[in-house]
UniProtKB/TrEMBL annotation:
UniProt xrefs under PANTHER family: EXPORTED PROTEIN, L,D-TRANSPEPTIDASE
Position of the signal peptide: none
Name of this protein: L,D-transpeptidase family protein
Native organism: Streptomyces albipurpureus
Annotated transmembrane regions: none
SUPFAM superfamilies: L,D-transpeptidase catalytic domain-like, PGBD-like
Database matches in InterPro entries: LD-transpeptidase, LD_TPept_cat_dom, Peptidoglycan-bd-like, PGBD-like_sf, PGBDSf, Transpep_catalytic_dom
Active site: residue positions: 275, 292
Keywords: Cell shape, Cell wall biogenesis/degradation, Peptidoglycan synthesis, Transferase
Annotated region (Disordered), positions in chain: 33-116
Residues of the L,D-TPase catalytic domain: 205-317
Length: 318
């Protein structure tokens, strides 16, 4: 029986091959890492401490998930939402809030207020009378009627309704009125600015009545012949609006419904007419009609009555 010696296998030529094979196995074991099958016994962790396999330690954050790259130190924390890139507010910097101060302009200077008296107050009252806000005789005393008139004027134009005549209110009033005459300052007459005519009032003979300015303008072929104060019905007996024509003239008419005088009546729609009103002359705009167009200037409506003919147009508008 022939005996083969094992030493022949482990000769000098075979050792390098075996060494290379073992090295390849070691390389494969290293590169497989945590993905390889576990073996009995403790495994070696990358920190050199015995314990669970690196697969179990994978529950911790990886360098990339922790914001780190291999070989780098701890990453800087990402800016939080509270770390705003906007400049610090004036409260934190101690700077005065200049923008807030600039956004609140100082109030307008007051020229006249309740208790004042003199020529300028009389002029104020006469100018307010021109646009229908003051119905008393100018007295030169800034009383409750003047306060109420100024408040109404201010509120209509979107100004603060203080009742005081400040520089803004005064400039606005000057732009809408004319220099009062001596008769206006004494309360003997009121010269109202000419109201803007409705387009329907520009042709022919028309009584053009504006509810905005509370005036009646007698217009012939587009030219205003006269203008007078008027008042209208209340919300329960409103004056109709639209285009009408005069169908009846009655100089000494008396209402059969209300048993009241209606001098110089010019009927234009049912029982509604333009006529003189003693109540309007006495009470001003504190009262209202039953739907008619009241005139308080008797001489003015008498002259109008003499000129108007049946069939002349009546336009009532805002």
């Amino acid at each position: 029986m022939k005996i083969v010696q094992k030493t022949a296998v482990w000769g000098p030529r075979t050792r390098p091959v075996i060494h290379r094979a073992l090295a390849a196995v070691a390389v494969l074991a290293v590169t497989a890492g945590c993905s390889g099958p576990t073996v009995d016994g403790p495994t070696v962790r990358t920190d050199g401490k015995p314990g669970r396999s690196s697969a179990a330690s994978g529950a911790g954050p990886s360098p990339s998930s922790a914001g780190m790259t291999p070989g780098s130190g701890p990453s800087q924390p990402a800016p939080s939402e509270s770390a705003s890139s906007e400049p610090a507010s004036s409260e934190s910097s101690g700077a005065p809030p200049e923008a807030d101060a600039e956004s609140s302009p100082p109030p307008a200077a007051v020229l006249m207020s309740r208790g004042a008296h003199g020529k300028q107050v009389r002029e104020l009252q006469a100018r307010l009378a021109q646009i229908g806000w003051f119905d008393d005789t100018p007295s030169g005393v800034y009383g409750k009627l003047t306060v109420a008139a100024v408040k109404g004027f201010q509120g209509k134009r979107g100004l603060p309704t203080t009742g005081d005549t400040d520089t803004v209110t005064w400039r606005r009033l000057l732009s809408m009125t004319t220099e009062p005459t001596g008769a206006e300052l004494r309360g003997k007459a009121v010269n109202k600015p000419v109201a803007k005519l409705d387009p329907r009032c520009l042709d022919g003979r028309v009584m053009c009545v504006s509810k905005t300015t509370r005036t009646l303008s007698w217009v012939v072929d587009g030219r205003v012949r006269s203008t007078m104060d008027v008042r209208f019905g209340s919300q329960y007996t409103p004056t109709r609006e639209g285009s009408f024509s005069v169908f009846l003239k009655s100089r000494d008419h008396v209402s059969t419904l209300y048993d009241t005088p209606m001098p110089y009546a010019l009927f234009f729609s049912g029982g509604q007419a333009v006529h003189y009103s003693a109540d309007f002359a006495a009470q001003g705009y504190n009262g209202a009609s039953h739907g008619c167009v009241n005139v308080r200037d008797r001489a003015a409506v008498a002259a109008l009555f003499s000129e108007v003919r049946k069939g002349d147009k009546v336009v009532i508008h805002w």
